[in-house]
């Protein structure tokens, strides 16, 4: 930035104003008609300069001030771009000066200068200088300081001035003595120790605590102008080097963003806890070392853990797996599968676990990665016992005849295909019986369908009680039944068929009107390796059954 001397109306503090203007500005220095006031000022050993804080420009400096600022000429100093070299701490400090100067306050501070690389500490007295346009400038008189500071002290002083930490010094009664620029920018005007705190009572308590403790730290809500902010506050007792009396040094750092983030994280954590506790699935979150991070009550309930979930935090999950493996049908497999999933680090959504008490659990595994770094995993356990029972019930109903409880046609077809494939591939043997109730239509028409159903159920019960466990009796439609007999020869099947025939004929059905009997005709055959399909076998059995009916019913016929 350079001075603009070309405009006659510029709002400046031009050093080329009339001599009487300059002289009058400096405390009304009396002038003689035969003397040039600026020449008089240049003869002074006291540095004097005028600085425009708002424009960050130097508008006048006497010869001593030009030397102090390390400039070759006054014009070089006026052309200097102060804005490019001024620190934010200095800028804040000068901004704080403006309202104080406007109120007529005289500001005394110690400033350090470095002409020719040599440190000079001056007592600078700053007062208001009113421009010809009514703006407030700063008139500075650099007086010789009565304080001699070594290099370390000067550097420490500069560090305090430029640090973003707010540093304030109070006397033993909490009255403010001095503040650094950061503290000045945060709190305008004079303030007491207690006024810095949102809770004044707490502030008084801190003063009392410092009487017995040399230092303390805390996080507190502090007043900054008319706002409240979270600050980290360091307090210590010290001795005033000027008076020898006790004083308090307070350092403050604004931690409001961190506290806001912590509060948001706490809220999010609590919200997540509520969600987790509301789930009916068991959740277990482990870190990369297999230590528990989070567990919920549903997880504890599934595994019979009496301790509340929060007591599991930090627990070693390897030890926990060993202690709970007895709950499962395959204990060692349970532990081995956990290790397998963790090593693979691949998401697994449905792992079926059969428990020793007959229950079933479904487990999901999800590894947790952040920026490609592994940070543990999440287990989700769900009790699917009811679902498994429902599925088994649905499967049973889908494969079972509802009237007799025997396998239905669908089950017969599936089983027959398996047996036929076994006979062809393994050179095994199997027989097939086709059973049909004789004159069943007459029974239904004469006694009614309810009595006919009794006959069907009687036949089903007879088959269940007189066949092997490996045999499969099926109701394949109406009054037609099939029996698959794996591992049975033709002769054995023929003997079983006659035994069934006699059992059925001797049975009595207690009808509502009168007891009745019925007979069946049975066709017997074997599964042969050369059969093209199951239909080939069933056609032979069907032909044998009709042969038995043609030969008088209530008999067995065989076809190979």
UniProtKB/TrEMBL annotation:
EC number(s) from the headed UniProt entry: 2.7.7.65
Region (Disordered): 1-22
Cofactor(s) it depends on: Mg(2+)
Example of a GO MF term: diguanylate cyclase activity
Domain GGDEF: 428-560
BP GO terms, sorted: cell adhesion involved in single-species biofilm formation; negative regulation of bacterial-type flagellum-dependent cell motility
PROSITE patterns given in the database record: GGDEF
Alphabetized NCBIfam families for the sequence: GGDEF (TIGR00254)
Protein name from the UniProt record: diguanylate cyclase
Organism whose genome encodes this protein: Halomonas ventosae
